[in-house]
Design a protein that fits this description.
4-stranded antiparallel β-sheet, globular, 3-stranded antiparallel β-sheet, Chitinase A, domain 3, alpha+beta
């Protein structure tokens, strides 16, 4: 089969796969796998909870026994939540309530983005094919970095005016005759500016020298030694790449639409910081945020013993009543801001930043949080909080957290096996207590096939990045009880 025929066939396959996936996703999201009183576990939730977060060793794999363990674990989680949701101490915990509200509002903004931008974005197949052609190119390069902008300018001048060879310059600055060389593709390039040059519209010449390109605190120079194009792809692989590229381009188009929507939403709104308090608060918070990602609300949420406590964030008592910033004439105190962080952890536009960069990045992250608050207000106006998918998302996190908190009470002793027995006994008791209210769809359960790939899915750039709660470590039971069917 020639390459052109592969393209045509692949486009047909890609269209069929896209339609099939859309239909499956909608069905899985709506199909109830288990009813537990008023609570439910959908097919989508079952699959996501099993495959988008690491499972314990006893629940790894894709056998029927493992699938049963997953179902029993999720049922146990719902049973604990059902049994405790009205009298758990968490109902009076502000941080827990803010966490759940923040999770709900993040889902609302996700729907707002989808309906305002993504559903309106479209990509022509010719654009996708053009992008695939670019993506099929790999480059062999020589490269080196220098530490200062002054040195980078000096090297740029030597290359441009004196025509000094790349290798000679490298030797002058390092004393090493063996210049680093590597092959790069669009998938492994890892440097945005270099990617824009190599895979943009401009034609790249052999032996062309690129740079300086700022990469973190250094300056990169690159020489193009060679390039080659991948031409031998199966129809299924071409279809897979077509779908991925189409999705990437549609996402990029949707982002442009959403950026325009945000610009319109924020028109005339201005954040005015109280500089004295801003820099004082930045100084207090910097040690907490610098050198790591502290987003996501709960520190070590994957640790089943943790309760709702946002990462040990410092509480500056002496300035809590001071105005931190003003937006639309409303004064926001430091205390208001700290409360808001519990619902919307700060998202920084750069990771692994130095302490000197913190004030500027802190200012931007606060601005992004304020922006999201206005978007959330629009989502409430559109009654997105009433959507079934928002309610399902909120209930999933609420049930998971209550179960995590309440089951943690069984792990306070020193004998871990005894604790495990106590928790197991509690789960058995709950199964007996609510047995008549547990109604699985066995036929639907039989259709599910799990993978054995260990994943931890995160939503990059989201205040709460974890896509699903941690796997509930509540039971190792491998057989399914004879519950009443739906």
């Amino acid at each position: 089969m020639n390459f052109q025929k592969i393209k045509i066939f692949a486009l047909i396959v890609a269209a069929i796969l896209s339609l099939s996936f859309a239909v499956f996703a909608q069905t899985a999201a709506e199909k109830i796998l288990v009813g537990i009183g008023e609570k439910t576990i959908t097919v989508e939730e079952f699959i996501n909870r099993a495959e988008l977060t690491p499972r314990p060793s006893y629940a790894k794999g894709n056998s029927n026994a493992v699938k049963n363990i997953v179902l029993n674990s999720l049922i146990a989680e719902k049973l604990i939540a059902l049994d405790k949701e009205n009298n758990t101490e968490l109902n009076n915990d502000r941080k827990y309530l803010n966490f759940i509200k923040g999770r709900k509002e993040q889902k609302m903004r996700e729907i707002l983005y989808r309906e305002t931008a993504y559903d309106k974005a479209s990509v022509d197949s010719s654009e996708v094919i053009k992008e695939l052609e670019k993506n099929s190119v790999s480059y062999t390069i020589e490269y080196f970095t220098v530490p200062t902008e002054e040195t980078a300018k000096e090297i740029k001048q030597k290359i441009g005016l004196r025509g000094a060879s790349f290798e000679k310059i490298y030797y002058e600055y390092t004393g090493d005759k063996n210049i680093p060389e590597k092959e790069i593709t669009r998938n492994n390039i890892g440097i945005d500016e270099l990617e824009k040059i190599l895979y943009g519209e401009r034609k790249i010449r052999k032996y062309e020298i690129l740079g300086p390109i700022k990469v973190n605190d250094r300056f990169l120079f690159v020489k193009i030694i060679n390039w080659k194009k991948e031409n031998t792809l199966s129809a299924s692989e071409y279809a897979r790449r077509f779908n991925k590229t189409s999705g990437d381009l549609r996402k990029a188009e949707a982002d442009k639409i959403y950026a325009a929507f945000i610009k319109k939403t924020m028109k005339g709104k201005k954040i005015e910081f109280n500089d004295k308090i801003f820099f004082k608060l930045a100084e207090i918070l910097a040690p907490f945020y610098v050198g790591g990602d502290k987003g996501g609300g709960w520190k070590n949420f994957s640790d089943e013993a943790e309760t709702a406590n946002p990462s040990g964030l410092p509480e500056p008592e002496n300035i809590k009543g001071e105005t931190f910033y003003t937006i639309d004439g409303e004064k926001i105190t430091v205390e208001d801001f700290l409360n808001e962080i519990e619902k919307h952890p700060l998202v920084f536009r750069k990771s692994g930043f130095a302490e000197k960069e913190f004030p500027a990045l802190f200012r931007l992250s606060v601005a992004d949080m304020v922006r999201d608050k206005f978007l959330t207000d629009i989502a409430y106006e559109r009654k997105l909080d009433q959507r079934s998918e928002v309610k399902r998302e909120t209930e999933m996190w609420k049930d998971a957290v209550i179960s995590l908190y309440e089951s943690g009470k069984f792990s306070s002793g020193s004998n871990s096996s005894q604790i495990s027995s106590a928790l197991s006994a509690y789960i058995v008791e709950l199964n007996k207590k609510y047995k008549n209210r547990i109604k699985p769809d066995y036929n639907e359960f039989e259709k599910i096939r799990l993978t054995d790939v260990d994943l931890f899915a995160v939503e990059k750039g989201a205040p709460f990045p974890a896509v699903v709660p941690p796997f509930p470590k509540l039971t190792k039971k491998q057989n399914i009880d004879d519950y009443k069917t739906k």
